[in-house]
Automatic annotation (TrEMBL):
<keyword id="KW-1133">Transmembrane helix</keyword>
<dbReference type="GO" id="GO:0042128">
    <property type="term" value="P:nitrate assimilation"/>
</dbReference>
<feature type="transmembrane region" description="Helical">
    <location>
        <begin position="65"/>
        <end position="82"/>
    </location>
</feature>
<keyword id="KW-0813">Transport</keyword>
<feature type="transmembrane region" description="Helical">
    <location>
        <begin position="243"/>
        <end position="260"/>
    </location>
</feature>
<dbReference type="Pfam" id="PF07690">
    <property type="entry name" value="MFS_1"/>
</dbReference>
<feature type="transmembrane region" description="Helical">
    <location>
        <begin position="340"/>
        <end position="362"/>
    </location>
</feature>
<dbReference type="GO" id="GO:0005886">
    <property type="term" value="C:plasma membrane"/>
</dbReference>
<feature type="transmembrane region" description="Helical">
    <location>
        <begin position="31"/>
        <end position="53"/>
    </location>
</feature>
<dbReference type="InterPro" id="IPR004737">
    <property type="entry name" value="NO3_transporter_NarK/NarU-like"/>
</dbReference>
<keyword id="KW-0812">Transmembrane</keyword>
<keyword id="KW-0534">Nitrate assimilation</keyword>
<dbReference type="InterPro" id="IPR011701">
    <property type="entry name" value="MFS"/>
</dbReference>
<dbReference type="GO" id="GO:0015113">
    <property type="term" value="F:nitrite transmembrane transporter activity"/>
</dbReference>
<feature type="transmembrane region" description="Helical">
    <location>
        <begin position="401"/>
        <end position="421"/>
    </location>
</feature>
<feature type="transmembrane region" description="Helical">
    <location>
        <begin position="189"/>
        <end position="208"/>
    </location>
</feature>
<feature type="transmembrane region" description="Helical">
    <location>
        <begin position="272"/>
        <end position="293"/>
    </location>
</feature>
Amino acid sequence: MSTIHTHSNHLPLERLKIFSLRGVQMRTFHITWLTFFVCFFAWFGIAPLMPLVSEQLHLTKAQKGNIGIAAVSATILARLIVGRLCDIWGPRKTYTALLVICSLPVMLIGLSNSYLSFLIFRLAIGVIGASFVLTQYHTSVMFASNIKGTANAVTGGWGNTGGGATQIIMPLIAAGMVTMGWVSNENSWRVAMIIPGFLLLVMAFIYFRYTKDTPAGNLDELPADPKAKKENTFLVALKDYRTWVLTIAYAACFGVEITVDNYAATFFHDDYKASLIIAGLLASIFGWINVFARALGGIVSDKVGKRFGFGGKLNLLTVLLLLEGLGIICFAKAGALGMAIVLMFFFGLCLKMANGATYSMVPFINPKAIGSVAGIVGAGGNIGAMLIGFLFKAYPYADAFFYLGGSVFAVGVIVFVFKLASKEAAAVELSTDTEAARA
């Protein structure tokens, strides 16, 4: 009896025990989402402080647009690389290395004294966005197929709330330092950014010390599988067109999310004349929706998948994208601050549920290439954000949101057309054996 119990502890969990820290699976689950929260906090820590940066460095609207694009551009390549490294090195070593490396530009961005130097630091900080791929990979191998979508969505959603928390906390940290007399108001952003950088180093230690690559142990502790090593998982993922459908969909949901994280505070500050702290507070509403919305998308997607299969999951994603697009269009035309907040909540809810629904499908594209598929789809989110950045650079923010809403609606139509045209989509098996899940 004890042998069976020990062996079961080495398998992916079939149930998500939110309030438990027992077992490597749940311990990794909680460390993973908390680490991702800190990564998101650090990634967008400078966003609510941009009015201070802009004033001190005399940034133009075009330059601020370039900075917004830089914030998400480096993440594209980083996610592709990290996805492949997950399949080779495992998530534990890869995540630890990422956290240590990215802590440097986060802490050192305060040394910027010109537009160019600030742009370079902002580009480097964007690499930390690859943390999402690691989070989704690690959750996927720790949980069984019946609960993967829910587990992925919860870790992703709770981690993404870091983008909301930073909108409130970073202005308060900067203001607190000024109140304490430690630094002048105009330089407060420089010193404040040391805090998220230090937190990244703390999480690097915790991640390396307390997580494992798989439920059965770290990759270098497991018996080698020569056949798996010879297979290029990145090419396997690239050749599957379903990977690209999810990539486009993710560009239209997560790509929009990090755009809003980047521009919301400035939009409310400039267009609705909100103060720096109030603008950050309003923008944070969008981030805090992640506490439940992304998880809700994964939960609903898992339930739909049990009844209607992979095709049902695609139908759900289609509906969410269409509603998101309509919501953004209305948000752009809101006119009044109160209505804008309500509409931001609505399209944010649809958007974050779409995030969860997308990654509830990722582990099933190819169980032997989870890292690479997750990396490509994740990179799609940042490609979307980069392209949207050019939109926000070229047009007033209200107009940019209007065009963005139309684009998201069009992507929803594309996903629907793919579903109608593809017999393979309906035939995908929503189950993976334990060995495949570990691969």
